[in-house]
Amino acid sequence: MSRRRLQIGMWHAFSEEDLERLGSDAIDGIEICQYRDNESLLYTTKVCKEKGLSFGIHTPVFGGQPYRRPRITSVDREEREEALRCVEREVRAAAEYGADYLLFHYPYVPIFPPETKRVFSNMPLPGERYSAEQINAAELRDISLRLFDTLCELQHRYGQCIVLEHDFWGEHEELLTAMFREHPEIELVVDTCRLDISAKAFGNVEPIRWLEAVAPYVYLVHYSNVQYEADRFIHHLPVLPEHDHDDRFGDAYAYLACLAQRNERFHVTFEHNAKLIDRNRLLDLYARTERLLKPSLKKSDSD
Questions:
Q1: How many other C-beta atoms are found inside a 10 Å radius of the C-beta of residue 280?
Q2: Residues 94/102, Cβ–Cβ less than 8 Å
Q3: 8 A C-beta contact, residue 222 and residue 191
Q4: Strand pairing partners for 29?
Q5: How many C-beta atoms surround the C-beta of residue 235 within 10 A?
Q6: CA of residue 130 relative to chain centroid, distance
Q7: Which of 229, 222, 283, 297 is nearest to 255 (CA)?
Q8: Omega within 30 of 0 (cis) for the link into 70
Q9: Three-class SS string for the chain?
Q10: What pLDDT digit, counting tens, does each position of 235-292 carry?
Q11: Which residues contact 130 (CB under 8 A, 6 or more apart)?
Q12: Which residues, in sequence order, are bridge partners of residue 234?
């Protein structure tokens, strides 16, 4: 079993200053995204090797222009085919630089169910998502089967680990779960923010039930919390103890605890705005997360 990694995000450019400020003995990986050019990425890979850090990539590999996530589950065939060409370019680049994993969103385009329990003004707008009427279960299953087959083939051809972060799945929870169950080569990324927002916005999402079902297929957790206001949410917050029993915040810690009891190998990226807390609180957050992920160590300490 590979060693579990705790990672920090370092998008757009590698920063020695950020590594000094955000790093610790607990951190042994970074997640990168939208780097400027080949030189910037080569420098990052060089520093990671020198410091013994792993790195994964949240697509896109390179930035520099307005970016739309590949619409890999679009109902429009030409749009979907263009998205898959984009996926292959990203896979080729990630493999060239030796990334531990490359992450895409699935389903993408995100899907909303027929009924919304609570409306948030900063949820995806109609042009950025599908309503339940725009894609049915048979369509999504056919598109998904083709997608997973393609990703498996690309993963084998380029020797590049590909993972999929869940987006809003509408009414298709079981279909999404089945895709990962039937294609163990492609693993799942759980986003604790998006999962909690789904539960608050839609009546059909029960996070713990779903996490129990998908736990064996989880490769990575994007770990952060969310705060709810009257008609919007603030996301990518550090997960702090005072959030645990405060209804204004999400249940990120509970979600991670649920997965930790059922899967001993997934990695964690702190996908939060670390500037919101000082370094001492940040180190406490890392230590609390480590304790949660290593229950056997706690047991041996008390023996």
A1: 8
A2: yes
A3: yes
A4: 7, 54
A5: 21
A6: 20
A7: 222
A8: no
A9: CCCCCEEEECCCCCCHHHHHHHCCCCCCEEEECCECCHHHHHHHHHHHHHHCCEEEEECCCECCCCCCCCCCCCCCHHHHHHHHHHHHHHHHHHHHHCCCCEEEEECCCCECCCCCCCCCCCCCCHHHCECHHHCCHHHHHHHHHHHHHHHHHHHHHHCCCEEEEECCECCCHHHHHHHHHHCCCCEEEEEHHHHHHHHHHCCCCCHHHHHHHHHHHEEEEEECEEEECCCCEEEEECCCHHHCCCCCECCHHHHHHHHHCCCCCCEEEECCCHHHCCHHHHHHHHHHHHHHHCHHHHHHHHC
A10: 999 999 999 989 999 999 999 999 999 999 999 999 999 999 999 999 999 999 999 9
A11: 75, 109, 110, 111, 112, 170
A12: 227
For 166, the token pair is 């869940």
Q: What tens digit of pLDDT does each residue of 196-240 get?
A: 999 999 999 999 999 999 999 999 999 999 999 999 999 999 999
- For the entire predicted model, the pTM comes to 0.95
